[in-house]
Amino acid sequence: MDRWERKRRSRSVGGGLVLAGGVVCVCLTGGACSGLGAAVQGAGGGQEAGDGDPVAVLHRAAGRLVAAGSARTRTAMEMASGGTRVTIRGEGVYDFGGRLGRLKVRLPQDPAGVSEHRPITELLAPGALFMKNRGAGVPDDKWVRVDTASLSDGNLVTGGATDPLAAAEVLLGTRTATYMGRTELAGTAVRHYRGTADLARAARDASDDNRKALAAAAEGFATAEVPFDVYLDDEGRIRKVRHRFSFANGRDEGTVAVTSTTLLYDFGAAVRVRLPEEQDIYAGKIAAEPGEGPADGPGEGSAAGQGEGSAEASGAGAGAGAGAVAGGKD
Question: Labelling 200: which of 73, 211, 243, 291 has CA 20 to 30 A away?
Fold first, then answer.
């Protein structure tokens, strides 16, 4: 257990969870598998947000979340390729200051709709993703750890949910944005913006914890340009953000389209995350379950995403970070 993990484990923060990486490619290509600053009040002083520069407003959004401290979150990740569509949903809490979260990710049923998968508990931490109920040979009381710096999608897709702070910091790369007007989201007045962000630019301005991850994503996706829709409340905090990513499918050279949606609410919610002790992290091999094949994503050779991979994943690609765990059409 290194110094960083001891320090994080002593904190009292909230959590979130993440999905297992192979879900993206195996679900969409293999058929059956087994397995979301400165105060900004409009343009300032309570003025209508559309009166200000949309790009500048969005560059401040991540900082407003850090200032808010924490929030509850719901996520949805939809993957589409070749007529197959899979949606993975998550729910949990996230501490923006500590960069720690806990999510419970729910997987789709098998194509026949016969069995239900146990939810996967995911802990989000700087540089690491921990998963429990991974399955495929991992003991029930053990966690799988993935080094997110090694993922070629920066863990924007691999986990089945986008880290909420990373989702916000993608907006640091906003190059063009249009103010679409006011609307309401779950009873809260919000301002809607639509634009495109550049992942390489976002990486340059991101926090230390996300800089390498976003830079990897800029290299790993089919394009570094990310279209988005985002909804900010009157304090400039993100209430909803939807990104559209795409990457090449290694199996048939097609393109997998991924829409990742993150909802944030109940700001200031209590968050408590306890990272696994070293002895609780699985260090063995993850066996492929029936119907699983090698997971090819934007980057290959996920140690944990393939049948004979190591649980301590390094050099993993998006869609291959932690094994194929879900399948079926949504």
Answer: 73
